[in-house]
Amino acid sequence: MADYSIQENKELNIWEALIPVFALVIMLAYNVLFVFGDNALSGSNQFILLLGAAVAAIVGFRNKVSYKTMIDEVGENLKSTTGAIIILLFVGALAGSWLISGIIPAMIYYGLQILHPSVFLPATVVIAAVISLATGSSWTTSATVGIALIGIGKVMGMNLGMVAGAVLSGAYFGDKMSPLSDTTNLAPAMAGGELFSHIRYMAYTTVPSILVTIVAFIFLNFTQDTSNAVDTSEMLTAIDASFNISGWLFIVPIVVIVLIVRKTKPIIALLIGTLLGAIFAVIFQPQIILNIVATAMVSADSDLVKSEVLASLGLNFKTAYQGTMIAMTEGTSVETANTKLNDLFSAGGMSGMLGTIWLIICAMVFGGVMDAIGALDRISRTLLSMAKSVFGLFASTVASCLALNVTASDQYLAIVVPGKMFAKAYEDRGLAPENLSRTLEDAGTVTSVLIPWNTCGAYQSGVLNVSVADYFFYAIFNWLSPIMTLIFAAFSIKIKQLVKA
What we know:
This protein is mostly helical. It is built from 25 helices and 2 strands.
C-alpha cells in the first residue's frame, strides 16, 4: 500500500479539481433523496459514480490529460481492490456455509441466552472490539460475530442501525489499535514513525473515544423498547428444531480467529473457514443439505414433488457437494417453525456480494480518474496551504483524509496521500511523526465506513445488511475519532515534539 503513486497536474486549479466532486454530490443527492431512496445502491448510485468519473475525465481532457493516463490509473485503482473483492466473495461463501452448518444459528442460540437486552448494545461494542483487537481486522469481525450480533439484535427488537453502529464502533477500535492491522502498520510507515510508538500515542485519543462510545450506547440501550421482541423460549425452540445445535460448532470460528491472530492472510483464513463450515454442515446438518438439493431439483423440474424427491435422496458425496456448493455460491435460506426467523436465516452466498463488488468497482473508476487528472493532489495541496498554525495543520490533515475517503473511495489512499503530502509539514513545525500517523488513523481509517461508496462503507453495509444511512449516526466511535483528535490539537494536549539527536 505504501507504493501508491500520487498524480500531479500543475495546470489544474482548485475549482477545476472540485467540479467532479460537486457534480458527484449533487447527482447522488438527487438520486437518493428524490428518486430511489434506500434502493439507490441497487445500481443507480453505481452509474452516478461513472457519471462523476465522466465529468472528471472532461476536466482532464481540457487540461491535456490523455485517455490512456486515466485508464491506466483506473486500472491501478482496480488492481488495489483485488484483495478486497476476493475477500468479499469468500465472505459471501462463508456466510452460506456457516448458515447451513449451524454456526451462525448456534451463535444466535447461545447469544440469546447470555446477552440480556438491557446491556446488549454496550456489550456488542466490547465483543466486537475484543475480536477485532485479536484479529486486527474489522472486516473479519463483521463477517463473523458481527452477523451473529445483528441477528441477536433483530430477535431482541433492537434498532438494527444501532446494532450495526455498535458492531462497527467496536470493530474499528480494535482494527485501529491492533498491531496486526494493515492500516495500523501503514499509517506510521507513511508518517515516518514506528509501529508501537504509534499505537501508544494513538491511545491518547482512541481510548477516550471508545469510552464515550460505550457510555453513549449504555444510554441508547435505555431508549430501546424490547417488549415487542419475540419470546426467547419460542425462538430457542424453533432454532433447536431446525438445527443440530452444538458447542462443537464453535471450533470453526475459533480456528479462523486463531489463523488471523497468527498473521495468516485473511483470504486464506476465510477460505479455510468456508471449507470447514461446509464440512461441519455435512456432519451436523445433513437434513439441511438434502433439503437444499431437493429444492434445487424441484426448481429445475416443476413436475417433481419436493416431498417425494426428499424421501428418495440420501447423503452421499454428490448431494453433499451440491448442497454446500449451492449455499456458498447461490445462497440459501432455512425455514423454521417461527416465521420471523426465516429472514434471519438466509444468506446470499457469493452472488449476494456482487452488488457490493459492483459498487466498489465503479467507485474505483471515479477515484482513478480523479487521481489521474491531478485532482486529488490539488485538493490536498490546497488544504495544506491553508495550515497556518499547528491546529490548522491538524485540521487540514483531517479534512484531507475525509476528502480522500469521499473522492478516492478507498481508506488506504486516505492514509497514503495525506501521509505523503503532510509529512514534511509536520517535520518543519517540529512535530513528531506520531502526530501525523495518529491523525491519519483518527480521520482516514475509521471514517471510511461512513461513506456509502467507499470500499469500507460498501463492504460493511453489504455484510451487515444495514445501510450506511441507517448506521451512520450510531457509528459513534467512527465520527467521534476525528473530532477527538481536533480537540486534542486545539488545546495542545499530547502534541509530541521532535526530539533532536
